[in-house]
Amino acid sequence: MPQRMLIDGKWTAGRGTTFPTYDPATGKVIDEVPEATDADVDEAVEAAARAFESAEWAGMLPAARARLMLRLADLVERNAEELSRLETTDQGQPLYVSGGSVAGLAEHLRYYAGWATKITGVTASPSVPDVDFRTHREPLGVCALIVPWNFPLPIAAWKFAPALAAGNTVVIKPAEQTPLSTLRLGELFVEAGFPAGVVNIVTGGPATGRALVRHPKVAKVSFTGSTEVGREIAAEAGRSLKRVSLELGGKAPSIITADADVDAIIAGNLMGGVFNSGQMCAALSRYYVDRRRADEFTEKLAGAASGMRLGPGLDPATNLGPLVSEEQLERVDGYVRLGKEEGAELVTGGARADGDLANGYFYQPTVFGGVAQDMRIAREEIFGPVLSVLPYDDPDELVAKANDTEYGLTAYIWSRDISEANRLARRIRAGSVYINTFPILDPAAPWGGMKASGMGREMGWEAIEAYTEVKSIWTKL
Ligand code: NAD
What we know:
This protein is α/β, with parallel strands linked by helices and 477 residues long. Helix content is 41%, strand content 21%.
């Protein structure tokens, strides 16, 4: 029996056809999932709109909302192994990645359960006689949450946890490549006792996403995905004046200064670049290395990369799983061919894995040396395990090069000189800068991009702001 969608507290096959979802480690179909039609999307949004006004949800005390979220966190933990295996089977990522994602999902729920009882407005002192003035933070209404395929569960949680904590209702659309873990999570939402219609899940591709974005009863769209689709959504939200948060692509610089301890930082630089097979918006992809250390760094990075063990995500010995789809594999391989044509030096990798792994979407971790700033492999997001080393000569040139990109999600600086690293951090245009570490994400730390990497922030108090509206209330005394 094909999977079903969650609409108004019930499981439904919808009115449309189904589409297959694949195991990226074998290329085989694992399941069939409904392709939500416009009418299905409408039904889900209408259910969420009714739930938003319902006494059961709108009248629920913040502490009770928090308890629901805490109950869901416990259920996620109780089912952690199943969720993690499902995520790995559908997405391809190794169990250590999906296991971390599931643990992070539970912690995210707990963090925002904490906020549910702490959302405050302010009192202020307008220069008007005999008035009382205060602000009140209110939920927005129905939030459409559109999720990509690289980290299905955590990225959904970054959206629904603050949205629900603030009292909104949601329609979640997982990516068409990776719907299964979110559908299983839907069962846990029901088990936790969320009222019908508060959380709805529709499956489908771009057409389903568009129907959600255009729906007049959607108050806010939170989207994570490609910059191209982000631009389309921002334009549509602009026309209808919907609230919108966008988490888009990245092309992160990793700066290695002359005094860096190369042996000590190789593992962090490699993992930051190829974690989840490089399918990570925060992935380190442009390594700016002081020219005096560039050969040493490139050789050690390539040596460590070639020693990684590729394999199915379900095999605990695997370091690197497959890419999510044949399409993504072709895209990555296309960039590698392009890098060679552009004159970059292929130091290691550069091909699809063969032998036992030939049927899955496995790609060797790849390092290019001697990459120039204007090469497309140094400018465009590859979203695969492809790392480019760009030697630099002087620090002023370095900052200009690191900032010479349309993206601005993350940046990394590796140096023994912490003052200098912090000075550099101030000059890099990126939403998060990491000094001497690969990317760390935590619900307490705001996350999001500058420039074409997005608009708005997830996590922290900033996410509560992003899912609420401020109302000014005046009383004549
Ligand atoms: P994508 O933009 O094609 O799809 C993302 C989601 O949007 C999917 O659910 C898809 O079905 C839906 N969608 C596609 N077209 C749509 C449309 N016109 N209207 C509404 N919804 C639509 O991206 P992808 O291929 O799934 O993900 C890869 C991209 O996501 C990369 O560029 C990556 O950098 C970015 N990403 C960013 C972050 C971040 O936090 N900044 C995180 C993960 C991925």
